[in-house]
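To assess whether ligand presence alters the predicted conformation, the chain was also submitted together with zinc ion. Input:
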Amino acid sequence: MAHGKSQFAVWRCTKCNTPLKTTSYNKNHNDTIAKEMKMFCKKCREQVVAKRKDAKKGN
Ligand SMILES: [Zn+2]
């Protein structure tokens, strides 16, 4: 059993670029996780496509 580090990802609205959600996931399963997702954007006030962007924690 590998001790995977969790990777943080920010979901941004593709229309207004507002960060909608922050999630963490296991890097080992990166391929199985969606890179796009439909979410409700409060700013656009509609369902938008959000794109995942990995966020690295700086030192
Ligand atoms: Zn938006």
